[in-house]
Amino acid sequence: IGMALTDSLDELIQTSHIDPQLAMKVLLQAGHLHTYRFCDEVWTFIIKNPNFKLENEQVHVDKIKIVACNAKKPGEAEPTKN
Predict the structure, then answer these.
(1) Residues 16-62: pLDDT tens digits?
(2) Beta-bridge partner residues of 51
(3) 36: buried, middle or exposed (CB in 10 Å: 19+, 13-18, 0-12)?
């Protein structure tokens, strides 16, 4: 997840969706990447021992699975890259 996560966080910072301090917090709390794969335009990450902060409590779990895919709507054209 290392490079993919840092690239994604960098893009979020560049587009002003998050600030650099939040990106650093995400990196520090990311946990250990156990497995990742990219198939048919879908990313799947399995992270061991992540910590989550929910309102006023911290939650620790053994494992979490994150599935991410393109958010374009059906029929919507792919964005052009410069």
Answers:
(1) 998 888 888 887 776 777 787 888 888 888 888 888 888 899 888 89
(2) 60
(3) middle
